[in-house]
Design a protein that fits this description.
The protein has 281 residues and is α+β, with helices and mostly antiparallel strands. Helices cover 25% and strands 26% of the residues. The strands form three sheets. Strands 1, 3, 4, 7, 8 and 9 form a six-stranded mixed beta sheet that branches. The protein has a four-stranded antiparallel beta sheet with strand order 10-13-11-12. Helix 4 crosses helix 6. The chain is elongated, with a radius of gyration of 21 Å.
Length: 281
Amino acid sequence: MIKLHELLNIKEEDFSNYKVHFAIGRDRRKEPYNAFLIDNFKEWQEYQTGKNWNRPFILSLVYYEKDIWMFGGIYKVLPINPIPVENGNGWIGWKYETELIDAATEYIGRAFFKFKKEFRASYPTLELEPKNGEPIAKMPLSHILDKRVALTDFLGFDQVNIDYKTLKHIVVDNILSWKSALSNVKGIYLIVDTLTGKQYVGSAYGDDCIWQRWESYAKDGHGGNVELKGLLKSNGLNYKYNFKYSILEVCNMNLGNEYILGRETHWKEVLLTRQFGLNKN
C-alpha cells in the first residue's frame, strides 16, 4: 500500500525539512476542514498559539473523520518573523506568513490517509516514529477521490452542519447545489450558539423555504429573531460567527403551515429549547 511520503514524493533524507500539521479544531474538530471548503485554510493555519513553524515546510493533514486525514497541501514558511496577535477575547498568538508550494497539488483535497493519532502533539516532525503506531511519514493512503472536495457538493439534508462563515459564503456566492436543495423544501432547522451550547429551533413555512430563511440569517446573523438579536446586541455583531446551522427535518412543499408549526413545537419540546435554549415561545 502506498505511503504518505511516497505519494507526495518526499525523500527520507528530506524529512527533517518538514513539520506535519494535524489540523483539527479545539471545540469543533472539522473547523479546519470547513475552512478548507471556503478557501480559507491557509489563513486559518497561519494563526498559531505558539511558535510552531520552525522548519522550512508544513505538511498539512486536515481532520476529516476518526483516523482519516485529508491532504491539505505543503506550505513554505516565509522568512518573516511571526507577528503577535490578540483578538477581542484576549487570545494571544502568532500570525505567520506562508505560501502553498507547487508540490503534489493534484492531491490536495483528494488524497486521504489512515492514521490513528495516539499522541497529543499537533505539530510533530515528519520523521517521528511514535511509541504507539506507525511512523508518520509512512501512514498508508486510505483513498483518493476523483475530484477535490468542494462546498459546491451538497451532500444531503442530514449532513448539513455549517458555521456562519460557511453559510455566508454559500449565500453570497449563490452556490447552486445548496440553493437548489434548500429552495425546494420547508422544514425545521437548528441554530446552536457554540460558545454556550444553547439552541434555537426555527421553521420555514408559508412562502419561505429553508433557503429564504437562511438567506436572511446570512445577511445579519439574526434573521429577525428577537432572541438572536438580543445576543448580537449584548455581545457585538461578530458574535454571529459562533452560530452553527443544521436541519432537523424537511417537509413536503405541499404541507400546510399548521403541520410545520406543529413539528417545530415538537422539536422545541424534545430539545428543551424553551427552558434551556434560545426559544421564548
